[in-house]
Amino acid sequence: xxxxxxxxLVLLAFLNLFAGSADIPxxxxxxxxxxxxxxxxxxxxxxxxxxxxLVTAVLSGAALSVSxxxxxxxxxxxxxxxxVLGISSASSLGAAVVxxxxxxxxxxxxxxxxxxxxxxLGAALVLVLLIFLSGIIKNNLTLLIVGLMIxxxxxxxxxxxxxxxxxxxxxxxxxxxxxxxxxxxxxxxPVFSLIVILGLSASFFVVKPLNLLLLGENYAQNLxxxxxxGKTVLLLIAGALTSIxxxxxxxxxxxxxxTPHIARLILKTSNHARILPLSIFLGACIALICNLLCVLPxxxxxxxxxxxxxxxxxxxxxxxxxxxxxxxx
Amino acid sequence: xxxxxxxAKKLSIxxxxxxxxxxxxxxxxxxxxxxxxxxxxxxxxSTLIKTLTKIIKPLSGEVIIGGKNxxxxxxxxxxxxxxxxxxxxxxxENFTVEEIISFGRSPYTGFSGRLSKEDSSVVAxxxxxxxxxxxxxxxFYELSDGQKKKVMIAKALAQQTEIIILDEPxxxxxxxxxxxIFALLKKIASExxxxxxxxxxxxxxxxKYSDFIWEISQTGIEICDECLIHDKFKx
Lengths: 329, 235
Fold this sequence. Notes:
heterodimer; A: mainly alpha; ABC transporter involved in vitamin B12 uptake, BtuC; 15 helices; about 75% helix; B: Rossmann fold; 4-stranded antiparallel β-sheet; 8 helices; about 35% helix
């Protein structure tokens, strides 16, 4: 099983190097990867475009899936995911504020950097707010609704900003908002990778509290879990993973919500010691598949990521809603 | 000589300090004894159980275990003193029976939650004791309600605490299972020298198996005489 998913991941990774909007012959790609290629253009496209995009997709898919898994367990809700709780919508709001307000003041503003910074700030603010609220609001459903309200509020502010924005800034924001794994530039890749890998590693240290929370908060407490501290740590990990990916790739929908369910279906257990590693692998695979689907139109251009992710997400959600058994988490 | 493991002094319980459900409660739990709480719905049985298990804080007064006020005992240490079986369903039942019982070892395992050899043998022994070894690998959601309760009791035993507190473990069970659970609790108390506190509406089993019976009502907790109960319920 482990071997199967590993081979699948490697296969998908290679496919991602071979496919793209530029038509590069098979042998040339192999040459670039394994030898030195004389063709400047090909090696630039593959090494500075497709390769970073591949790494970004793998890391983002894994990060979003782990974040979704943690959210579903902490909030005891099978429909929770990185996009609930307002974290990714607050990211969007932060990005919108920066693109619309600041870019009109400073004309030579570095757009990529500013969007990343803005969305990280937005996510961090909401995360701090949520952790503070989770100490006061004991009911998980209430907290989830507060998150939803934050999403609506951010949405409406974004619409207003859009209304007054310049044509260029509206375009910049809209492109970011559609999602893409091409957003991480080669020079940003080390920082992005470091943060995601740190977050993913941290998640392996919280397998025990995650499992205990699946028994219910009272049982978890009676088994030695310090609830408020445990939940804060879990929200921090999930929030950091979501916000770093959203900052660079835009609010990517459905991957974080759907992957943990697919992992539970495959393994027929909810034990995080087994679900967590598989979610990481599956998340990476699904992100790579979505990225492949994005470049299907070939030289006509690239599909937005968020147009492709529902292909995986929607069937899974419908399946969850239709099954009447209690194995939803 | 009987040994008291939990002492409550002038204990007030409830959800708001202005309107305590009960105040000035004084009682003790004894090791090796099965104590049952009876009382009307909303009399405060669950509130009392939640207070004694540190799920909610006492409004005033103290609960003392091993000479220490439970407010001053860390969650991790408390998990080795008192284990609990609640009425609520598990948030997820997508675990094997063995995994659920193993969660009882959480207070003893490291951050990864991996069981040591000793932990695994405790789990195996508990399962053997409760005669559930043959379905250790079954998923929890496939069990009957009676079997589920037994597994949760096994989890509590795996926690190796000197006190086990159960909130209405026999509700929704057929009368064979009710009797079986109470017989099991009595056996656990006397053979393992554990203090067992159980709330129940199942008056027949309570009378048959309890060492002490408390009735909780508006006036507080009263230790009932068996004959009094026979009289009251015309049994």
